[in-house]
Amino acid sequence: MRIATFNVNGVNGRLPVLLRWLEETRPDVVCLQELKAPQERFPAEAIERAGYGAIWAGQKSWNGVAMLARGAEPVEIRRGLPGDTEDLQSRYLEAAVEGVLVACLYAPNGNPAPGPKFDYKLAWLARLNRRAAELVKTCTPAVLAGDFNIIPTELDAYKPERWVDDALFRPESRAAFEALLDQGWRDALRSLHPAERIFTFWDYFRNAFPRDAGLRIDHLLLSPTLSSRLVAAGVDRHVRGWAKTSDHAPVWVELEKAGEGG
Fold first, then answer.
1. Mean pLDDT in runs of 10 for the chain (262 residues)?
2. Is 149 annotated as a binding residue?
3. What does the domain layout of the chain look like in residue ranges?
4. Residue 7 annotated as lining a ligand binding site
5. pLDDT recorded at residue 262
6. Is 84 annotated as a binding residue?
7. What CATH number does the domain located at 2-255 have?
8. What is the pTM of this model?
9. Active site residues
10. Alpha helices (H) along the chain
C-alpha cells in the first residue's frame, strides 16, 4: 500500500503535473495540499478519469486539502482539526482507506515570527498534537501526511543557519514536531534514511533546485500500531524538475498490507 503526500501548489494550475505523476506512480492514497481553489473548482472529473475517488476541502488563496484513493472513495471521518470552532482555514482532512486512517494536513507557515501568524501556527500544532494523542491512545492504524511547514533538524535544510529565525525552524515549531515523535509516531522517511540529506521543497528562486538548496518540510508520520508495516519511503524528486511543476516534490511510504509479513 503506497501512501503519498504532495503540496501541489495550485491543483488546477498544476493539474497536468498531478495527472502525469498519478499515471506514472499509481499510489493507492494521495494527500494534496495548497489547492488554491474554492470547493466548486476542484477538478473532480479529471481526478475520477484518472481512476481516483476524492474528498476535498477547498478554499481560495493558499489553503485547501484533498485526499484521493485509487479505485475507491475515501470514507471521510473528520473535516478540520477539533479545538477551535472559529478556525475556518481548510487545512485538515481525515478519512479511512483500506483500514488505515489517513490524516491530510497543511500546517500554517507562521511567518513572520514572532507575531499573530506564528501564534496561530503554534496553536494549530497544539491541536494537531492533541488529536494525534487521541489516535495513539485508541491504537488506530494511522498516518499523518502533509506539509507540516516544519524543518525538524539541521540535516533537513540546505543551510540551516539561514533559517534560525524562520517560523519553520524556530525551536517552538521543532518542539511541536518532536512532541509527536515522543507520542510514538514514526517519521517514516528519516527512520529509513537516518543520515541522508533528503529534501522535499526547493524554492523557485535563486536556482534552488539545480543547486539542491532545499528543505524537508513534507512528512509522513506513522502511528505506533502502523509503523511495523513500513517497507520503504522516498521522495519523487524528479517531479520537481518537470515543466510548470510545484515547488514541492511528492513524498511517499510503502506499507505492507494488513496481515502480511511476520
1. 98 98 98 98 98 96 95 97 95 97 98 98 98 98 98 98 97 98 98 98 97 98 98 98 98 88 49
2. yes
3. 2-255
4. yes
5. 45
6. no
7. 3.60.10.10
8. 0.97
9. 106, 147, 248
10. 15-25, 44-49, 116-137, 171-182, 188-192, 208-211
